[in-house]
């Protein structure tokens, strides 16, 4: 197509982020061929593709990277501020949206004459990453129109902090209230804005699951084993896993032993039931999850390694990319692929767990090096010993650039024996040539 049309194609492509560029070009070329004025051709294309893709998305279903998103929400709060954009001072609007399924932050780069409580339909928005959660980004190519005020729950209803079980907490929760037990707790010193602070970190649990928590203020009289009730705690996301944050404004109280609870306090000590690996692969991240499967591969990078004593990175020939020449510390790890028939996941084992699974300690492994002192000898022995074994692992998962990684905290040999698993395997293979 003539180069003079390229800027118009580029503008349409940005405005229709969810439409393939070739479709936009073909439609534009056809209209120009029939001598439709450029301005009218652009309006026609925008109307056509926007009306053909008007499916509304719930807030809870937003995913980072989505484009061409349409949603009907109510504005919970909105504010205006000035930012520096490419050397120019620009006014933007930001706040929080809600639709009954959840809440999410938003930023608008176009002027909005809206107020808290307004019900709106937002079209052709994109979803960006903001503090590891989905944020709706409204650009100059987005449309924002007011809706009938009765089409969404009232702002007073949407503003109420939900009471949730831990398993139900997700990216669309900005604040929650709940009752849970403290099953792990420790203090840590951090520096915030030049000030040394002591914070409390740990794990909360109810009968549905477990989540990490951070308290920025003392929890007087509370320790491991305490049952607590908290309200309006903020939820932050890290690698797909939510964490509960308590501060001085968060009401936290101990739950008495005589109070009726919705669950048995002893249930919090029950280990998680293994889930199919396919469930792990579908999630951005999971906290305290268990899976079982066969070791189908021991990956390169397993065996004896050397770490930097400062940053703990794996180093080669006692040279750290951040700290230069250092006296490396000997360590052991195993990177393996675990498969249960529904999927496979990369599992990481630290030294302690590697020694348990491999059956040899770090020091015992040195006897395999031989005269050549080749680290490859231990890697090859690990593959021989471990490949095909049935293993259970428990830990946390996160999605990185190359897929999902399982960082293990404990391992075991599942009790289910081969007589139970063989019929299940044969059933899956039924009809396979």
From TrEMBL:
GO terms (BP aspect): double-strand break repair via homologous recombination; response to ionizing radiation
| Sections of the chain in a coiled coil | none
**Keyword DNA-binding applies:** yes
Q: Does the keyword DNA-binding apply?
A: yes
Indicate what this protein is called per its UniProt record.
Answer: Single-stranded DNA binding protein
Any one GO MF term held by the record is: DNA binding
Query: Record's InterPro entries?
Result: NA-bd_OB-fold, SOSS-B
Q: Enumerate the NCBIfam families for this protein.
A: PRK07218.1
